[in-house]
Amino acid sequence: MSKRKIIKINEEKCNGCGLCTSNCPEGALRIVDGKAKLVGELLCDGLGACIGHCPENAIIIEEREAEKYNENKVMENIIKGGANLIEAHLKHLKEHSQTKYLSEALEFLKKKNMKIPDFEKNKSTEKCGCPGSMVMDLKEGKSKKSENREIGLESELINWPIQLKLINTSAPYFNNADVVITADCVPFSFPDFHNRFLKNKVLVVFCPKLDDEYEMYVDKLSEIFKNNNIKSITIVHMEVPCCFGTVNIVEDAVQKSGINTIIKEYTISVKGNLI
Looking at residue 8, which CATH number applies to its domain? Predict the structure, then answer.
């Protein structure tokens, strides 16, 4: 066994709804005795497709000693589910830039003389999972000059999703990134948020008061910091007392991750001014 990323399930939080199992095309998850279980380490690729579908936030990605992921074993499970499941798995690998595993999967299908689905074509809706939580790098297609930019209306958002609950900690846009972590109210309160804080940065958003997910947020941010060579962290929060929890969560995550990086903190007034 070797150390690698793999999912971890908090059974106390898990309510046995099964949403994670239906969004794990690799077949690594099963409901056993009313709880989600990782039934095969070699079937879990550690990319976290299941995370955004858990309503209880009971799933995180951790790094530990685990059996090596085996794409051929996964494909043996996948093909039993039919063409749609095969297509969903190939898309999953492509979206996470897993070129090695994707090549192995395609080679497996060729050896089995099975039809390879057109998994690279664009579709308005996905056959598996929620399109709203699909990992997207939005840098491509952003022009340096545009009519909108001249009048200050150009979006600087370069990643999706942005809510911490939905974000995949292994998303490729985190690698060597400058990250801005902001409380939910900030972008609505500070009119120049895109130009002042967001340009060329990956965005992470949450509410330290209403979300009530302190430990999960610390764990998730820690995974992002530890595994992605983050260049800098910018924290932006409101002046109201409850919003300072944003800073506490980020600081605890940094400490847990053990990284040493540049951290900047900014406070926005309720009148929309930088304090």
Answer: 3.30.70.20
Instruction: Please tell me the distance from the alpha carbon of residue 159 to that of residue 137, in angstroms, as a whole number.
Output: 5
Q: Which amino acid is at 34?
A: G
Q: What is the pLDDT of residues 1-15, one digit of tens each?
A: 688 888 899 989 998
Same domain, residue pair 153 and 263: yes
Please answer whether residues 1 and 65 qualify as being in contact, where contact means their C-beta atoms are separated by less than 8 angstroms: yes
Contacts 24+ apart (CB under 8 A), 113-119: 114/79, 114/86, 115/83, 116/90, 117/83, 117/86, 117/87, 117/90, 118/87, 119/87, 119/90, 119/91, 119/94
Are 70 and 174 within one domain?
no
pLDDT in tens, 22-57: 778 777 888 878 888 887 788 888 887 787 778 888
